[in-house]
Amino acid sequence: MNKNMAKYLTLGMDKYFGTKKVLRGRTFHPDIRTMGLVLGVLELLRFQGWAELFLDTRLPVHEKEVREFYTNLNGLEGSVANSSVNGVDLVFDSVRLDEIFHIPYVGLSKYVWTKDVNCMLTSNFSQEQITARSRKVLKGEMSPVHKLLFELVQKGVLPRGGRRHEASLRDMGIAHALENKDPIDCPSLMIKHMAKVIDPKPGAHQLAFGNLFTTMFTTFDVPLGEGRALVSCDMITRSTLATCRLYDEGNQAPAAPPRVPGPVSTLLNDLHAAKEQNETLRAELEALRNL
User: Fold this and answer.
1) From the record, what ranges are coiled-coil (predicted)?
2) 87's torsion region: left (phi>0), alpha (psi -120 to 50) or beta?
3) Beta strand spans in 15-158 (E)
4) Model confidence over 123-159: pLDDT tens digits?
5) I want to staple 51 with a disulfide (CB 3.0 to 4.6 A). Which of 45, 90, 103, 150 is the partner?
């Protein structure tokens, strides 16, 4: 029996979820949304229909209600889940989550990843030498852009809590689909992740989707009091980009664009090419004026 299961059996369900941290999700801080790299990432999120989920900083988090939601969550047969919060029943499936969050329920819905064919994901996300065996990839091995995509997946798409420094096959699979604009069935993944959160056997996941649940509670007319506002530590900021080596806080400027394949790298290269062309045109115009 693992320590998490022992804790669950000792405390009981109500007290067990009371010890869990409510994860408030991740949104992009308004100050960085016009940066070229961020615009490229937002375009990838917009393709999936997720952009608004990562942009709304106004949603408060109702931690008491989130804990009650997970305490009462059951069913989860197939893709249907049901719970109750403040006396209101909440029954939903992936179609209903699509209606609530306006995110498509088509595409990649695989939650359990056990194989990495030809080590494709491992070799794509690691800059180290790859053996014939697939494995998790440390964040330090990743390119700057992949570090940011990993941050989005582990803090926003399927939040688990804690300081995670290695990407699982699931993390890499979802990030790879995001980078390459392959449709992702986020509603189905969310429901599968909720089932993982309330299962004490695998490990101690924290309570995911705190900020998103505010929208769901409102849709189901759950009575809510005053919630906790998002703060800078709940957002992707310049410091986040600096940690990913995408921003030089000392020079207050974006770091050099990473040389990695994929849509984000292409957008960055196009942006820098456009800037160089603009500077050339300005120089030519100035020369004509001096004739």
Assistant:
1) 264-291
2) left
3) 27-28, 74-77, 80-85, 88-92, 137-138
4) 999 988 766 677 899 999 999 999 999 999 999 999 9
5) 45
* Token duo for residue 96: 């209903």
With H, G, I as helix, E, B as strand and everything else as coil, classify residue 227: coil
Q: Using an 8 Å Cβ cutoff, are 234 and 24 in contact?
A: yes
Task: Count how many residues are written for the chain.
Answer: 291
Scanning the structure block, which residue is given the tokens 């804690």? 162
Rg (CA), the chain: 21
Q: What's the one-letter identity of residue 113?
A: W
Backbone angles phi, psi at 88, to 5 degrees: -105, 130
Contacts for 86 with CB less than 8 Å, ≥ 6 apart = 65, 68, 222, 223, 224
List pLDDT tens digits, range 79-112: 789 999 999 999 999 999 999 999 999 999 999 9
Residues facing 236 on adjacent strands? 28
> What are the residues facing 82 on neighbouring strands?
74, 91
Residue pair 67/207 in contact (Cβ under 8 Å)? The answer is yes
Q: How far apart are CA 36 and CA 33, in angstroms?
A: 8
